[in-house]
Design a protein that fits this description.
The structure holds two protein chains of two kinds.
Chain A (H helix, E strand, L loop, with lengths): L2 H13 L19 H15 L13 H14 L3
Chain B lengths: L4 E9 L6 H9 L6 E5 L3 E6 L19 H16 L10 E5 L5 H13 L7 H5 L3 H10 L5 E4 L5 H14 L5 E8 L4 H9 L27 E2 L1 E9 H6 L6 E10 L9 H14 L7 E5 L8 H13 L7 E3 L2 H4 L6 H15 L1 E2 L15 E2 L5 E2 L5 E7 L4 E8 L2
Parallel strand pairs in B: 3-7, 4-5, 4-6, 10-11, 10-15, 11-13
Antiparallel strand pairs in B: 1-8, 1-9, 2-3, 6-8, 9-16, 12-14, 15-16
Helix pairs in contact in B: 1-12, 2-5, 6-12, 9-10
Classes of the chains: A mainly alpha, B alpha/beta.
Chain lengths: 79, 402
């Protein structure tokens, strides 16, 4: 599974949002994910993908940008 | 001019259920909700858990960073409003919520994470902060008036109710959602209470009988969880909309022992009792029922009886007493609100819930204890609910027929 699909599945598992409704380039706020639930999401993403978001890289607002950041961090520190 | 205040709605997430009628009926029949609880197999305790289905009130997304203590508070507040027959509330409605510990489960999860992996859930702080339950109620109901949190140990929600009633009586607000919430049945918190040696020993033959207030064989308190919220309303407003009125909030009295952090003091309790009677313009002989603080600790129960005797004097035999903690345990920050709801229901139904499991009344507890289920009280006109806290704060609430 590619990062984007894996991310969608994680969001579904966490927040019960239908995977089919998750659009790659829509703002996360469109699904009701606010600054608090985003913090929870990023925490779970770190656990799930074994990455560590730098403090200055948490300004993601779409699934595409989040998936790209995950891939970038994974490339820096391959498991 | 002091306005009269009435109770028009009751919302409960209690060990006996979530509807006032069913909860009161179970109590009236003497059914205990106290049971053995084996959490994670490692920690076993006798507690009173409140059944609660969060998915009935929240989506998964809404639950992010919302501790159980806030979840049950929101549910109880919504049920109080619905029970009062109100589809929505004026945005100036007040919120007065008591809690002893706030989000205990979130706190515990954070410490567990910190000492194992070093990772702490990012919403730990907003989840455990003590004013989270009140703030979540405000956001859910879209209320912009006074939103207050009271943390006064076992008197938290009794004081919250007293303050809300005063704000309505003095015309600051017309309505309030007032009560309390507590959810601290976690392994760490239970262990902390056990370390204090205040918890009841599990009754070997039947754990549901572990809490025995005023009985010679009592061994301590049983922790419970839950939320209780009352809809308080200015009487003229309630009458104008033809609301069902459970009872009138007649007055309250608050005092502090200022003598010992945990040991109760009869003279401090006497002050609160006397103030409550004066504040509600009632005499001891007017009060037919006392929902006692009665935690079933060795020291606490006789002190409460002593205080009642000193205020009631010759009228003491006419005061029926029971501690319903024998059946629902001690809800700490939510205890005052749940017991206020039970006291209000006793007036409404003209029936007294019993003090269960007191097989042999302690001679040092010389009060008229209601020990049998299903006690009718057709003459009942007024009743009090006592909440005496660690820290020395004593709160007494007085209710009467409207």
């Amino acid at each position: 599974m590619n990062t984007l699909n894996e991310l969608k599945q994680l969001i579904h598992d966490m927040f019960d949002i239908d995977v089919a409704k998750l659009k790659n380039d829509a703002p996360l706020a469109d699904y009701g994910i606010d600054s608090l639930s985003l913090a929870e999401l990023l925490f779970s993403v770190e656990d799930h993908f074994h990455v560590d978001f730098p403090d200055d890289r948490q300004d993601v607002n779409t699934l595409t940008s989040l998936a790209a950041l995950i891939d970038e961090l994974r490339a820096l520190h391959p498991a | 001019m002091r306005r009269r205040v009435v109770i028009t709605g009751i919302g409960l997430v209690a060990p006996h259920g979530d509807t006032p009628d069913a909860v009161f009926e179970a109590l009236l029949h003497g059914r205990s909700a106290i049971a053995q609880w084996d959490k994670d197999g490692a920690h076993s305790a006798v507690v009173a858990r409140a059944p609660f289905d969060a998915t009935r009130w929240f989506s998964r997304l809404q639950l992010a960073g919302v501790d159980r203590v806030s979840q049950i508070a929101v549910a109880a507040a919504e049920m109080a409003r619905t029970d009062a027959g109100l589809d929505s509330l004026d945005e100036a409605t007040g919120i007065y919520i008591g809690t002893g510990m706030g989000g205990a489960a979130s706190n515990e999860e954070a410490y567990r994470g910190y000492y194992s992996s070093g990772r702490i859930p990012p919403l730990t702080v907003p989840a455990f902060m003590l004013n989270a339950p009140a703030a979540h109620i405000a956001m859910r109901a879209n209320l912009h008036g006074p939103v207050f949190t009271y943390s006064i140990a076992c008197a938290s929600s009794a004081v919250a109710l007293a303050e809300a009633a005063k704000a309505i009586a003095y015309g600051e607000i017309d309505r309030a959602l007032a009560g309390g919430s507590e959810a601290l049945l976690t392994p760490g918190v239970l262990s902390a209470w056990q370390a204090m040696r205040t918890l009841a020993s599990p009754a070997a033959e039947d754990p549901s009988r572990s809490c025995r207030p005023f009985s010679t064989d009592r061994t301590g308190l049983v922790l419970g969880e839950g939320a209780a919220v009352l809809m308080l309303e200015a009487r003229e407003l309630a009458q104008a909309r033809g609301a069902r009125i459970y009872a009138e909030f007649a007055g309250s009295g608050v005092s502090c022992d200022a003598s010992h952090l945990t040991k109760p003091d009869a003279s401090g309790q006497v002050r609160a009792l006397a103030t409550a009677l004066r504040n509600s313009a009632l005499l001891p002989s007017d009060i037919g029922y006392c929902n006692a603080h009665g935690t079933a600790t060795l020291i606490g129960d006789p002190v409460e009886c002593d205080a009642l005797a000193r205020v009631w004097g010759d009228a003491l035999p006419g005061l029926a007493v029971s501690s319903t903690k024998s059946m629902h345990g001690h809800l700490l920050g939510a205890a005052g609100a749940l017991e206020a709801a039970i006291t209000v229901m006793a007036l409404h139904k003209r029936a007294l819930p019993p003090n269960m499991h007191c097989d042999k009344l302690d001679p040092a507890c010389n009060v008229t204890l209601i020990r049998e289920p299903g006690h009718a009280a057709p003459q009942l006109r007024a009743a009090i609910s006592n909440s005496f806290a660690f820290g020395g704060t004593n709160a007494v609430l007085v209710f009467k027929h409207e």
